[in-house]
Design brief:
mainly alpha; 3 helices; 97% helix; elongated
Amino acid sequence: MIYHLLDDPKFWILICFIVFVILMIMPFKKFMIGGLDNKIEEIKKNINLSLEGFTTAEKKLNEASKSTKDIDFKIKEILENAKVESKEISRVIIEKNQSIINSKEKNSIDRIKQIELAAVQSIKSQASIKLNEIIINYFEKMPEEKRKIILKNKIEELKII
C-alpha cells in the first residue's frame, strides 16, 4: 500500500505542499519573532523613559509645591495690604465726593435763588406792563374832563416830590 502511494501524483503534490508550507512558515516565524523582540525592546525603553520622566515630574512637583506655599503666603500678605489700601482710597474718594456734593449743593441753591429773583422780576415786569395797558385802556375810555383832572392832580403831586 505504501508503494501505491509513492506512485500517486496527488501524494507527491501533498508532500510538496507540506514542504512548501514548512519552508514558508520558518522565515515568517523568524521574521515575526524578531519583530516582536524588537517591539518588546522598544516598549521596555519607552517604559524606562516614562519612569524617568515620572521621577523628574515628581521632583518638580515637590519643588513647585514648596514654592506654592511661599506664594500663598505672599498672596495673603498682598491681599491684606490691598484691603487696607482700598479702605483708605475709599475713604479719600468719599471725602472728595462729599466736598464736591456740598459745593454743587451750594451752587445749586445759589442758582435757584438767582432764578427765583429773575422770575419775580420777570413777573413784576409783565405785571407792570399789563397794568399799564389796563390803565391806558381805562384812561382812554374815560371822559376827557375826568382825565384832565387826574393829570392835573398827578402833576401837582410830582412837583411836591
